[in-house]
Design brief:
131 residues; mainly beta; eight-stranded mixed sheet; two-stranded antiparallel sheet; 1 helix; 10 strands; 4% helix
Length: 131
Amino acid sequence: MKPEPIELVAALARFDQLWSPRIVTIVNDYDVRIAKVAGEHVWHAHDHTDEFFLVLDGELRIALRDGADGAEREVVLPRGAVFVVPRGVEHRPSAPDGASILMFEPSGTSSVGERHDEVPGHVDATTGHRL
Protein backbone atom coordinates (compact mmCIF):
# COMPACT_ATOMS: atom_id res chain seq x y z
CA MET A 1 0.00 0.00 0.00
CA LYS A 2 1.29 3.42 -0.93
CA PRO A 3 1.61 6.01 1.83
CA GLU A 4 -1.20 8.24 0.58
CA PRO A 5 -4.19 9.78 2.37
CA ILE A 6 -7.34 7.67 2.27
CA GLU A 7 -10.75 9.36 2.06
CA LEU A 8 -13.07 6.89 3.80
CA VAL A 9 -16.27 8.11 2.11
CA ALA A 10 -14.65 7.57 -1.31
CA ALA A 11 -13.28 4.19 -0.21
CA LEU A 12 -16.75 3.07 0.90
CA ALA A 13 -18.16 4.13 -2.47
CA ARG A 14 -15.82 1.66 -4.22
CA PHE A 15 -17.79 -1.45 -3.15
CA ASP A 16 -21.34 -2.57 -2.37
CA GLN A 17 -20.94 -5.98 -0.70
CA LEU A 18 -22.28 -6.21 2.85
CA TRP A 19 -20.35 -7.80 5.71
CA SER A 20 -17.27 -7.98 3.45
CA PRO A 21 -14.50 -5.87 5.04
CA ARG A 22 -11.96 -3.98 2.93
CA ILE A 23 -8.45 -3.27 4.16
CA VAL A 24 -7.77 0.43 3.69
CA THR A 25 -4.35 0.53 5.34
CA ILE A 26 -2.07 -1.34 7.73
CA VAL A 27 -0.63 0.00 10.99
CA ASN A 28 2.26 -2.15 12.23
CA ASP A 29 0.68 -5.62 12.09
CA TYR A 30 -2.93 -4.38 12.26
CA ASP A 31 -5.46 -3.97 9.48
CA VAL A 32 -7.67 -0.92 9.36
CA ARG A 33 -10.80 -2.28 7.69
CA ILE A 34 -14.03 -0.68 6.56
CA ALA A 35 -17.31 -2.43 5.85
CA LYS A 36 -20.87 -1.78 4.87
CA VAL A 37 -23.28 -3.73 7.02
CA ALA A 38 -27.01 -4.40 7.17
CA GLY A 39 -29.08 -7.05 8.89
CA GLU A 40 -27.32 -9.52 11.19
CA HIS A 41 -23.81 -10.94 11.13
CA VAL A 42 -23.18 -14.29 12.88
CA TRP A 43 -22.53 -15.12 16.52
CA HIS A 44 -18.77 -15.48 16.80
CA ALA A 45 -15.74 -14.97 19.04
CA HIS A 46 -12.13 -13.99 18.51
CA ASP A 47 -10.14 -16.04 21.02
CA HIS A 48 -6.83 -14.19 20.62
CA THR A 49 -7.70 -10.55 19.99
CA ASP A 50 -10.07 -7.77 20.97
CA GLU A 51 -12.22 -6.30 18.19
CA PHE A 52 -12.47 -2.51 17.77
CA PHE A 53 -15.50 -0.92 16.07
CA LEU A 54 -16.01 2.70 15.00
CA VAL A 55 -19.35 3.63 13.44
CA LEU A 56 -18.81 5.93 10.46
CA ASP A 57 -22.47 6.18 9.43
CA GLY A 58 -25.75 4.74 10.65
CA GLU A 59 -26.17 2.73 13.84
CA LEU A 60 -24.52 -0.55 14.84
CA ARG A 61 -25.84 -2.90 17.48
CA ILE A 62 -23.66 -5.55 19.06
CA ALA A 63 -25.25 -8.39 21.00
CA LEU A 64 -22.86 -9.83 23.58
CA ARG A 65 -22.78 -13.01 25.61
CA ASP A 66 -20.48 -11.77 28.33
CA GLY A 67 -22.28 -12.56 31.58
CA ALA A 68 -21.13 -15.29 33.94
CA ASP A 69 -24.14 -17.39 32.94
CA GLY A 70 -23.90 -16.58 29.21
CA ALA A 71 -26.63 -13.96 29.49
CA GLU A 72 -27.02 -11.71 26.48
CA ARG A 73 -26.98 -7.93 26.39
CA GLU A 74 -26.84 -5.42 23.56
CA VAL A 75 -24.85 -2.24 23.08
CA VAL A 76 -26.05 0.38 20.61
CA LEU A 77 -23.47 2.46 18.80
CA PRO A 78 -24.61 5.62 17.01
CA ARG A 79 -22.51 7.36 14.36
CA GLY A 80 -19.14 8.37 15.80
CA ALA A 81 -19.21 5.85 18.66
CA VAL A 82 -16.48 3.31 19.35
CA PHE A 83 -16.65 -0.01 21.19
CA VAL A 84 -14.22 -2.82 21.88
CA VAL A 85 -15.41 -6.41 22.16
CA PRO A 86 -12.92 -8.15 24.47
CA ARG A 87 -11.16 -11.26 23.20
CA GLY A 88 -13.09 -14.45 23.76
CA VAL A 89 -16.51 -12.76 24.10
CA GLU A 90 -19.20 -14.13 21.81
CA HIS A 91 -20.87 -11.32 19.89
CA ARG A 92 -23.15 -10.65 16.92
CA PRO A 93 -23.08 -7.28 15.20
CA SER A 94 -26.22 -6.09 13.44
CA ALA A 95 -27.51 -2.98 11.71
CA PRO A 96 -31.27 -3.09 11.07
CA ASP A 97 -31.14 0.09 8.95
CA GLY A 98 -27.59 -0.35 7.61
CA ALA A 99 -24.31 1.22 8.69
CA SER A 100 -20.72 1.81 7.67
CA ILE A 101 -18.04 0.80 10.15
CA LEU A 102 -14.29 0.86 10.65
CA MET A 103 -12.53 -2.01 12.44
CA PHE A 104 -8.99 -2.28 13.73
CA GLU A 105 -7.60 -5.78 14.26
CA PRO A 106 -4.47 -7.89 13.73
CA SER A 107 -3.75 -8.72 10.08
CA GLY A 108 -5.09 -12.14 9.19
CA THR A 109 -7.99 -12.02 11.68
CA SER A 110 -11.06 -13.80 10.33
CA SER A 111 -14.27 -11.79 10.11
CA VAL A 112 -16.09 -14.72 11.76
CA GLY A 113 -13.49 -15.43 14.45
CA GLU A 114 -12.24 -18.82 15.54
CA ARG A 115 -15.60 -19.91 16.95
CA HIS A 116 -18.86 -19.16 15.17
CA ASP A 117 -22.34 -20.35 14.30
CA GLU A 118 -23.05 -21.50 10.76
CA VAL A 119 -22.06 -18.66 8.44
CA PRO A 120 -25.04 -17.41 6.38
CA GLY A 121 -24.61 -16.65 2.69
CA HIS A 122 -24.75 -12.87 3.17
CA VAL A 123 -21.67 -12.88 5.45
CA ASP A 124 -18.21 -13.00 3.87
CA ALA A 125 -15.92 -15.20 6.01
CA THR A 126 -12.66 -13.46 5.14
CA THR A 127 -9.46 -12.00 6.53
CA GLY A 128 -10.28 -8.85 4.57
CA HIS A 129 -10.04 -7.81 0.94
CA ARG A 130 -7.66 -5.18 -0.40
CA LEU A 131 -9.53 -2.02 -1.28
